[in-house]
Each structure stands twice: as C-alpha cells, then as structure tokens.
Write a structure and sequence with these properties.
Length: about 260
C-alpha cells in the first residue's frame, strides 16, 4: 500500500509518495516540477515509483493542468481524487459564504495547520499564511471554525503590476530595508511590508475576536523571503498542504 499526494499551485506541481495514507507515514519519494514540465513526469521521476494504492491532490491551476496530470498517471491503475472544499472535514468547519468556492489549497493548508497544532498541545486560535504567487491569510478559532481570510498579491504580481502601470519602474529586485533609498529596495520593501502588515492585522483581529493569542503558521514557496521581516511570532512549515492531505486521506481511505 502507498499513497500519492499532489499539490498543484500556480507555478509548480509538488508530489510526495508515502507508505500509507495517514499522518506520520514514511516518506518514500518526493519531487517538484514547474507546470510546463508536467508532461515529463511519467517518463521521468514517476517511472521509478511503485503503483500508488490511493491518490489525493489539491489543485488551483485549472482543469487543463489537471487533465495533463491525469494523462501522466495513466501508467498506474489508480483513481485520482481531488480536494473540493466542503462545509466541514477533518475537524475543520468552513465559514465561507459558499464553502465549495474556497480555494482547495487554502482549505487543505488550514486542515494541516490545525492538526499540527493539536498534535502539540491544546486547541488555540490560528492564523495560517501561505506565501506564493498569491498570499492568503486565514483565521481559525479555537473550536476549529474558519472565520474568514485575506487574499493579496505575492511579491512577483506586485512588482509586475507596478512595472506595467507606472513608467520608469523596470528595475531589478532589491533588498528589504527599513528606510529604502533606491527604487529597487523601495519596491521590494513595500511588497514585503504589505504582506507582513496583512498578517499583523489578521493576528490583531483574531486576538480581539477570540480573546486569546493565536498560533501563526506560515507556508509556501516564498515563505522564507518573508521570515526576516515578520513582526509577529510564527512557525515556518515547508509542506503544510501535504500535512493536510495526509489528514484527509486518513479519513477518506481508512481500511
């Protein structure tokens, strides 16, 4: 028995194969490909994998990319399953106005973050941050209800928007400074502090709403860029979506 977890974002496909569909299962293999290289998976890294018994994936990139992944999975006899956000799953209650419209990556990451927190101690409110092509900042109360979240552009989108809408800003990425004195540093610092400020504001909202200090968990391919500039205490977690997929798989594929 083995379990294949797939996380497809706006830029890359990440995958991990585990010995079983449950948290704590042994990691057998893992990898990542840019979306333009998906069509090389079956003849490349996936050709060396044993046939997975179960597969569960999280995708935000759209149906065209999903079809390409399905074509690559034809080397195995396994039925692909993809997460769709629901009203409740794995101990998390979805407070979105239309629960199924919540991005699957956001839903899975929150499930992973909450179970990670519960494995370490008592339940507390949470702020869950994903920093990638876009940035999301989610609020969860101590009972496990998703209260709502923020979406804002990631660093790259911010810079491209400024370059396309403002003359003279075609400059290389700079450094984060408290007091930027050149345009490159001003652009990089502005984007970084915008994200940090959104996280800080959500932490304030959760603190006031729940009457307790929230646990702040950050993930995403660009999370490491934000780490030095954060003004609130947080934990940086590499594979939060895989943590969530394992929790969901435990319930969906229980023997």
């Amino acid at each position: 028995m083995s379990f294949l977890a797939i996380d497809i974002g706006n830029t890359r496909l990440k995958w991990s194969q585990y010995s079983e569909p449950r948290p704590g299962a042994k990691l057998l293999a893992h990898g990542a490909e840019f979306l333009e290289n998906i069509d090389k998976l079956a003849d490349g890294p996936w050709s060396a994998l044993s046939t997975p018994t179960h597969m569960l994936g999280c995708i935000v990139a759209g149906d065209a990319v999903k079809r390409r992944v399905h074509e690559q999975m034809e080397i195995w006899d396994v039925a692909p399953q993809w997460v769709v956000s629901s009203a409740a799953e794995a101990g998390l209650v979805n407070g979105y106005d239309h629960p199924t419209r919540l991005g699957a990556d956001r839903w899975v990451a929150m499930i992973g973050a909450r179970h990670r927190m519960l494995a370490r101690g008592p339940a507390r409110p949470m702020v869950v941050v994903m920093v990638g092509t876009a940035v999301t900042v989610e609020a969860i109360d101590a009972e496990g209800k998703f209260l709502g979240g923020l979406i804002l552009p990631g660093h790259g989108i911010m810079l491209r928007a400024l370059e396309s809408g403002t003359a003279g800003l075609h400059v290389p990425t700079g450094e984060v400074r408290e007091f930027p004195t050149n345009t490159s540093d001003a652009l990089t610092s502005g984007g970084t502090y915008a994200i940090a400020g959104a996280v800080e504001r959500m932490v304030q909202h959760v603190r006031m709403h729940c009457g307790a200090e929230p646990v702040c968990t950050m993930t995403g391919g660009a999370g490491w860029k934000m780490a030095p500039s954060m003004s609130v205490a947080f934990e940086l977690v590499d594979n939060l979506i895989f943590d969530g997929l394992l929790e969901m798989a435990k319930l969906r594929f229980a023997a």
